[in-house]
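Researcher: Re-running this chain for the archive, since the previous output was lost when a drive failed. Same request as before.
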Amino acid sequence: MRTILVASSKGGAGKSTVSTNLAAYFAVEGKATAILDADKQKSATHWCEKRAHLESAVLPLDGTRRGWDKSLPEGIQRLVVDAPAGAMGEDLVAFLDMADAVIVPVLPSAIDLEATVPFLNTLVAHPRVKKGKLPVGILANRLKPWTSASQQAVAQLKSWPYPVVGELRDTQAYVLMAALGKSLFDYHSEQIRSHQEDWAPLLRWLKKSL
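Model: Regenerated structure tokens:
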């Protein structure tokens, strides 16, 4: 089993959207995939339930209950962890201990950038992160690439000590697809393919990390 932790201390960064689309990618690729939903809002769980009838269904697991780590079903090839909202590094120790890679989505605003710095500082306190044994990647999310705000935000992110592993453009498609239990990777239209291409750098980074 390979485990990807999606975490951010800033609410609204798109953590669940990244988690569900990533899980769908693995499931569509034929991997037995589950989401460990540790967020009390349960957005990822509701998405999984809507997707249950598809051949590329994703198994929802409750990461808010005690003992979740002792009841993981066998046969899972990819586990995506949707971390608790607002959690800092010290709150994520159990997830960091088992993760093979960590993705930190960040929105292109001064507030989000400022909130992410102390979060990353708490991550590096974990021994595996500190020793470079657990890769951490920054995912610039909901970008409007034609605006100076997004351009400046990406430039600032690239000055940080963690790699920017992807840049996702803002689109309402994510909201519409989430309501159906779908993802970018369930469609093949030309418009959707252009957004799928945004994920290519992240998926390449994960392939190396996993």
